[in-house]
Amino acid sequence: MATNDYESGLKMLEELTTDAQQIQDQLLGEILSKNAETEYLQGFLHGQTDKQLFKKNVPIVTYEHLKPYIDRIANGEASSDLLLVEPLIGFSLSSGTSGGLPKLIPTTAESAHITATFSKLYRSLMIKHFGDINQAGKRMELMFAKPDVETPSGLKASAVSTRAFKGSSFKAILPKLYTSPFETIFCPDTKQSMYCQILFGLIQRDEVVMIGSIFASTVVRSFKFLENNWKELCSNIKTGQISEWITDSGCRNAASLMLKPNLELADLIEDVCSCKSWEGIIRKLWPKTKYIGTVCTGAMLQYTAELEFYCGGLPLVSGFYACSEGAVGINLEPLCKPSDVSYTFLPNTVYYEFLSIKEDCVTDSQNQVQLNAMSHHEDTGPVDLVNVKLGQCYEVLVTSSMGLYRYRVGDIIKVTGFHNNTPQFQFVGRQNVALGVDMERTSEADILKAVAEAKALLDPLGLILTEYTSDGDTSSAPGHYVIFWEIKPKEGNNNNKNGKELDPKVMEQCCSKMEDSLHFTYRMYRKENMIAALEIRVVKQGTFESLMDYFVTKGASLSQYKTPICIKSKEALNILDSRVIAKFFSPRTPIQDN
Ligand code: AMP
């Protein structure tokens, strides 16, 4: 990016954040006038485009409300008659699920253009803080493309990142600016892909100026992987031959072009990796690295301690907040700590509204936001971007050129300040997520259903599941789900004090059954080793009574007490863990949909 371009990017950021209200109103006007004749908007606005009428008549909706329209488009009906006039180039696959399948978000050439503008602004800001890293060297970004899903209409559904990786402009800059060859990003086997991307990052270590991945969980997973595989990687570098188990032809081709025997480099890496502590390893292996670029907020906050350990003081830059529904916010202070990050919402991407949330309904840590209709302030309707109040929590609604109108993204955010006239938000959490160890969202209902399926396997053994709860364990990477079970025989006394009578085969089947019953994204992440095997920890009888006693001492009402489906409190987890009598893991990856 030329100096002029980056300066114009910074100038544009200032202008956008100053004229936020006007830009938002103009954007809404454009969206409504373009799409007024669609079946969806006609039903509420009868061809009108007035903002007040929009707020009065168009309902606030979730994906489920729009799904029938989106399904019709995916099945071949013309999108221009139904939801949005602009032709679709495909769908984006969101990490949220609906009825067990990923959500499909319509995508147009215009939305791709908006994302490109957003990226330009983001890059300008990064140049301001770190200089132009494109001139300084390469990025070791760990990138994993996902297969597209073909809809009956012929339109493809792709992850937003995969669409970006396929773009011709990305392909053109990849060899010069990134360490990962194209083939490794598209290798369908994530283990082979990760191995090769780390290998190519190591052999180009002198050029690496930035390390990252979209989400922090992937960066941590990669360093764990390196910890477990550095000897083999060094041996490949020594001999110039890639390991036999890398069977993907694309990866092998890339290796044959780039991997040459390099004894000196292999010895150096071996020296660094065989040191006792891996604290600060990134700086030692990639000495020119300026920062780690990865989202560390929200569900990713749980990975930052581990990442900081590997980083040795390098800045962790959580640069932007984006979703399949639209690029949303940029972190204007990329050097601040992950826990202090706020995102400034850009007014030219989507039209926002904010539903205010009652303070006592928000538990202020990742993935713990359990909201229902009662959580919103009933007296106040949604407010516009520039009218949010400092310190207040809100649920985000978007109206966009992608056919989303007053759509609940499902994210809860808190106003922390303003840049010019535009608010800055801290990410608080996702609505209705009970468990999440990566970017998947598992609700209480998902856990309930999975447990119901699995516990039926205990029946023939004369055992019943009396109580259960769960935890997302991220003490190791990848994280995994832990389900605590209290089991008792249907008849007679407890003869299962030490868990010996539990048939390990059946218990493992229970673990697998739960995984098979969980949603699409969970099963996909498991297959890609982004989540490790689900674990059932069987606890002594009486454990859940002790758990209840604990919560009652903490103020829960005994008469209204209900075991939480998911436990976040460390003390409560200690109560459970100290009473575990047996542990079982799922022995296989869950069944995938065709
Ligand atoms: P997807 O639905 O797969 O597009 O994922 C988008 C979701 O990821 C958002 O709605 C957020 O819940 C989450 N997300 C994206 N960026 C961030 C961020 N910077 N911090 C926290 N959560 C994020």
From TrEMBL:
Sorted alphabetically, the keyword list is: Ligase
Domain GH3 C-terminal, residue spans: 446-571
Q: Name one Pfam family in it.
A: GH3
> Which family is it part of?
Belongs to the IAA-amido conjugating enzyme family.
What are the residue boundaries of the GH3 middle domain, all occurrences included?
A: 343-430
Q: Which GO terms describe its cellular component?
A: cytoplasm
> What is the top-level taxon of the source organism?
Eukaryota
- InterPro entries for this protein: GH3 (IPR004993), GH3_C (IPR055378), GH3_M (IPR055377)
Organism, as annotated: Gossypium barbadense (Sea Island cotton)
Gene Ontology MF terms:
acid-amino acid ligase activity
Protein name as catalogued: Indole-3-acetic acid-amido synthetase GH3.17-like
